[in-house]
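Trying the structure run again after the queue cleared.
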Amino acid sequence: MRFITVSDLSHGATKIISALESNREEVVITRKGKPVALLRLISDSDFGTKKTEKKGKEMKKHGKRNLQKR
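Done. Tokens:
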């Protein structure tokens, strides 16, 4: 597990996310030496449901505007 400061995250978010994707290692964000957040890699399956996935496919197929009219 890696520890970084809020300031480090602010200045190097892109590099930190890239490292997270390659290493798959959780990152603890600290402020004034105390942990305040946990950054970890997720996938669609971590928060998606079948209903959400189906709606996403329909939006790709028909476009967002057409889906809202249904």
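DSSP finds three helices and three strands in the chain. Worth checking whether this holds up in the mutant runs.
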